[in-house]
Amino acid sequence: MKPLASTHNTSASNNAPNNASPNTWLNKVPEITLIFWVIKMMSTTVGETAADYLSFHLHVGMINTSIIMGVLLVGMLLLQLKQTHYRPNAYWSVVVLISIFGTLVTDILTDKLHVPLPLSTAVFSVLLAITFAYWFVKERTLSIHSIVSLKRELFYWLAILITFALGTAVGDWVSEDMNVGYGLSAVVFGGLITAISVAFYRFKANAVLCFWLAYILTRPLGASIGDLLSQPTRKGGLGFGTTSTSIVFLVIIFALVTYLSLKAKPQKTY
Known about the structure:
Number of helices: 8
Protein name: Membrane-anchored protein
Keywords: Membrane, Transmembrane, Transmembrane helix
Number of strands: 0
Order of helices and strands: HHHHHHHH
Oligomer: single chain
Shape: globular
Helix content: 55-70%
InterPro entries: DUF347 (IPR007136)
Radius of gyration: 18 Å
Low-confidence stretches: 5-14, 18-24
Largest sheet: none
Distance between the termini: 28 Å
Structural class: mainly alpha
């Protein structure tokens, strides 16, 4: 899948904020390519399996795991914010950590605080809508190809965090509460993403809207795939376990990010 690559046709320099320093800011996010979507989906899978592995297999507990992941996320995010251009290793490290942390947020709400998944889905949807609305009012764009200021990057990462929490709630609601099952859930979410791609390529639907819809849906897709691979057969999974699944996907992510880092070219300054 490679939707929204054409959003880069809109020059980020045209949307650069007035307070951006020339020759200082470069776009801080990657090109939207097939590799982008592969890594993103795998990071969501790792978010699901790694959260379960740390919380239950290692008996760290959800609260303690959330604290640890939260501290790591803040540290890596600060490192990412200090960058002046897109660096694959820093960017994708933040995405993986946000995936784990976002999963834990929803799991704590569901398992510890007993918040119904439909309610979590509604709350996260409203929070995401508010974030997008405020972002647009302040910056007049939601395009990820115009992340050329600190303010825009903060909006971006806040939206990403909420999409992961929202995607987790939606995925668990469909696969578990509705008893759809992990395999069929993956088919459902994969089909929705395919429909978005068709809407974008065939019917020229809004690129920014299609990107964010696809970004949200890759979370439950990756989570469903992760659960399908890691959960025992008695629960509808294939029984590979959280350890093996997490390691395999982390190795693939590491290999792809290393490849992107090696082939990275100097970017245009906005």
